[in-house]
Amino acid sequence: MPYKKSLKNWALQILNDFHALVEVLNNRSKIQNMECSEFKKNILEIFYKETNASFMGEASSHLESCLGCRSEWNQLLEIRGLFHGLPDLKPNQESIDIILTESRKKKGFELPSLSKLLGQLPRLGWNFVPVMVVLFFFISLFSIFHEKSFNNNPSVASNTLGMPRDASQPVSGGSLLENPFGLGTRNTLPYQDVALSEKQSVNQEEMLSIPNIRQQSTLFTSPEELKKRYEARRQILLESDADTLMMRGRRLKAMGRVDLALADFETITRFYPEYTYLDDVLMYKAQCYAIQGDVDKAIDSLEAYVQKNPTQKDIVLPMIDQLRHD
Amino acid sequence: MFTKSTTLTHIITNYQNRTDEELMILYQKGDSKAFEMLLVRHQKGIYNFLYRFLGQGENVEEAFQEVFVRVVRSSESYTPSAKFTTWVYTIARNYCIDLSRKGKIRQNISLEDTCGTSKESEWEEKLEDPQAGPEKLVSAQNLAEKLEMALSAINPDQREVFLLRERLGLPFEEIAQIVGDSVNTVKSRMRYALSALQEEFKKLGITDLK
């Protein structure tokens, strides 16, 4: 009977709807009456999602229907929105550099492990050993023959005067005090160049080569040859220092600082007895002492000059007599 | 950013998949690049936390340096059982407390203080909108200043919880470890902070939030 079937279905449908409605109403009341306080109590956990999914679901449903809780929820959203609009600030690069420096200082540089170091060595196999032995042999030879103490030799005076070279001025003549023996007419070259060129044991070629002596190999040079070379270089350096003192002494004498000039001339006499122009120095000394009025020392200097230059005896002796009588 | 961009790229490429704790362990073993990665990750967070907590522009750089220097010096004592963020923010917080005890932090800032003026360029970048006029920029700057003022006006305990939760996204449990209190206390402070901020907003006239 179709009529009865449809009626039955209709009744069942109504009953089902009724049950659903009752359930909805029950849930609604449950949400409204229970979860409002529950919601407010756990609003932070819900807002920041620090709760389980089912509770989040219930809270979400509650929000849809509860205006009061929704209002409170919106306030939190507004605050979040405000502060999320604030820019993220960045520290200065200088601060970062300081921190990084500190972090690296703390840890130091990373020392590679021994295995890494060994892994980076060229793989020469057993050939590496004899290569190292030969290398060690040559290094030992070099260290044995390498001259180490030359620069520490106290007889090699360091030229710290730094006086500029000055061409000697031609002097036409005059008394002992002005220009004995016409020294100024000898040449216009600085003392150093004249000394080097007149020095018999040193020729230009050797002079140019000696400054590079350290670049030359000393492994196969005989000790005598080495000694000769270093002695020659030493002489050049000594001459250079004496030249500087000479130039300065002459300049000081010309400026009238006879006492300071004497100091330089005395230094040359004392420490550079083999100076090429020592006779000139002695003559300058005699002049300076004569200017100072120290006749005895002036005479001593002249006598020393005569000893070095006996051929000038006839010229110098009258000067000595003149000083004695003055 | 550091020495060369290639160096930073190298650091990020090789260390980006590592957790903070792993990086810290690497640094303890002598890998300074791991520390650089940590610095890349957390420099902004730490700096902004310090900036908004201290409330003074001139001390922030010094505080930032000091915090990370302390991190470096304490690196040997770090254990992976604690989260790195918890550890580093604890150091930052403790430093701020030390400063406050020495009286170097002002609790309130005046209207004349322009916390954001030195960062005007950042504001301009943030509001990089061809259609945005100068009024919008000024408005944004004013709003930022008011927000900073509101933040400075609330209780420091509440402020730190708010910053750690809202700006840095740390969970309440971790915040509790940092500040050394219970989770319920932290949540309570957060509620008070939110309530206090709302009150400050009313005082400062922050009503239209759109």
How many β-strand runs of chain B?
0
Residue share in helix of chain B: over 70%
Structural class of chain A: mainly alpha
Largest interface: A-B, 35 and 49 residues
Order of helices and strands of chain A: HHHHHHHHHHHHHH
Task: Give a verbal description of the structure.
- The complex is a heterodimer of chains A (326) and B (210).
- Chain A is mainly alpha-helical.
- Chain A contains 14 helices and no strands.
- Chain A has helices spanning 2-41, 43-47, 53-65, 67-84, 93-107, 114-120, 128-145, 191-198, 204-209, 223-255, 258-271, 278-292, 295-308, 313-325.
- Chain A is rod-shaped.
- The N and C termini of chain A lie far apart (175 Å).
- Mean pLDDT of chain A is 73; it is low at 149-202 and 207-215.
- With 210 residues, chain B is mainly α.
- Helices cover 70% and strands 0% of the residues of chain B.
- Chain B has helices at residues 5-15, 20-28, 32-54, 57-73, 84-101, 120-126, 134-153, 156-167, 172-179, 183-204.
- In chain B, helix 1 crosses helix 3, helix 3 (32-54) crosses helix 5 and helix 7 (134-153) packs across helix 10.
- Mean pLDDT of chain B is 79; it is low at 107-130.
- The A-B interface holds A 44-45, 48, 50, 75-76, 78-83, 85-100, 102-104, 106-108, 110 and B 1-2, 27, 30-32, 35-36, 39, 43-44, 47-48, 51, 60-61, 64-65, 68-69, 72-73, 75, 116, 119, 122-123, 125-126, 140, 143-144, 147-148, 151, 165-167, 171-172, 187, 190-191, 194, 197-198, 201, 206, 209.
Which helices and strands occur, and which strands form pairs?
The complex is a heterodimer of chains A (326) and B (210).
Chain A: H1 2-41, H2 43-47, H3 53-65, H4 67-84, H5 93-107, H6 114-120, H7 128-145, H8 191-198, H9 204-209, H10 223-255, H11 258-271, H12 278-292, H13 295-308, H14 313-325
Helix pairs in contact in A: 1-3, 3-4, 8-10, 10-11, 11-12, 12-13, 13-14
Chain B: H1 5-15, H2 20-28, H3 32-54, H4 57-73, H5 84-101, H6 120-126, H7 134-153, H8 156-167, H9 172-179, H10 183-204
